[in-house]
Amino acid sequence: MSMRQGESEADVVPKSKRPSDSAFKQQRLPAWQPVLTARTVLPTFFVIGVLFVPIGVVLLHLSNTANELIIDYTRCTSSGGITCADYLQENPGKQCNCAINFTLTSDFNGDVYMYYGLTNYYQNHRRYVKSRDDLQLLGQLSQTPSTDCAPFAYHPVTMEPIAPCGAIANSLFNDTLKLAQGGVDIKLLNTGIAWPSDKRVKFRNPEGNLTLALKGFAKPIFWQHELYDLDKENAENNGFQNEDLIVWMRTAALPSFRKLYRRLDQTNNNYAKGLKAGEYTLNVEYRYPVVSFDGTKRMIISTTSVLGGKNPFLGIAYIVVGAICITLGLGLLLIHMRCSRSSNMEMINVNPHTQYS
Questions:
Q1: Phi/psi of residue 46, each to 5°?
Q2: For residue 11, how many C-alpha atoms fall within 13 Å in the half-sphere facing its CB?
Q3: Rg of the chain (C-alpha set)
Q4: Which end of the chain is least crowded, N or C, by CB within 10 Å?
């Protein structure tokens, strides 16, 4: 140990790594540890079971009040007799049209929503989740996008920066789904489908004219339309504030997921209360390839309940946990009673005579 001038070796106090003599550091604080006995464990199991089972039944009932119809259109057939999945494999980047007739067996009352669902699609992959430029999505355009966007940062031919860049934006779902009844299209709304907080905070358009602001930037390679021309009917729904884009950019946690696509326009008197039971047609403009990675595509029509969309998982989980707790409680109770009886019998059978010297 080095010494300063004027100090003797005796004056230097060596540093100690020993903790200070406090109740906290020396672990002398008072502690409580539960003693697990039959009187404490068995009531806990029964209370949890008695509470969880009825809660699960209520949740399952509320979930079942929501109506839902799922149509898998992965291999829908075009008018030419070929499946659209096969057509896209032979003609990448093209469009295939198909129609699927279906029947609603009951009325879908209340607010009606249309979702698209994908399976075997890993949006939660680490590199995929990171592949975006958040500053760009806030309307702060730069000629040098974030390095996280590579290899979808620059157009491979023109070398212009891509807006929006990254793998998430490049793989934007671009099928067009339409509902019809009796040959007449049912109006569906493409606004009000994104989280208000996302649209207000995370996604903004650059100031000024959107077309001029995006001059010098290329659209993502997989896109058919420019960023400023995603919605030809509503100019406010273009650019980074396009709600289809915002919904897609919120990545899913699981490989099988659904995302909100459209809302039923209930200003029409025929559909003011929802969709009535009857014959309908799903018209699909098929552009999104999924067969190459063994994925599937679904269209979901659903109403909502007090808990949101139809999802029986939470109710089933409560019922299963409650049933397991009751079963374990009964099993442990029988074991406890049997062991207690055996102990009592052993005490009775003990020899009462005592030898004295």
A1: -70, -40
A2: 7
A3: 33
A4: C
Where exactly are the structural domains of the chain? 68-308
H-state helical runs in the chain: 38-64, 84-90, 126-130, 134-137, 167-170, 196-197, 210-213, 243-249, 313-348
Residue identified by tokens 């007799």 is 81
Is the pLDDT score of 349 beyond 70? no
Neighbour count for residue 107 (Cβ, 10 Å): 14
Sorted by sequence, the CB contacts under 8 Å of residue 40 that are 6+ apart come out as: 34
- pTM assigned to the model: 0.80
End-to-end CA distance of the chain: 74
Residue 234's contacts (CB-CB under 8 Å, 6 or more residues apart) are 190, 191
Question: Which of 282, 71, 70 lies closest to 177, judged by CA?
Answer: 282
| Strand 176-181, strand 108-109: pairing | unpaired
Pick left, alpha or beta for residue 112 (phi over 0 → left; psi -120 to 50 → alpha; otherwise beta): beta
CB 151 within 8 A of CB 263: no
Q: How many residues are given for the chain?
A: 357
Please compute the mean of the pLDDT values over residues 161-178 and round it to a whole number. Answer: 96
- Tokens coding 49: 């079971």
282 DSSP β-pair partners: 100, 179
- Angstrom distance (rounded) from CA 175 to CA 116: 9
One-letter amino acid for residue 81 of the chain: G
- Cα 230 vs. chain centroid, distance in angstroms? 25
Mean pLDDT of 114-133: 96
In angstroms, rounded to a whole number, what is the distance separating the alpha carbons of residues 337 and 339? 6
3-state secondary structure of 264: strand
Identify the residue with better confidence: 255 or 40. Answer: 255
Q: What pLDDT does 40 receive?
A: 85
Q: Which residue has the tokens 């018209």?
A: 283
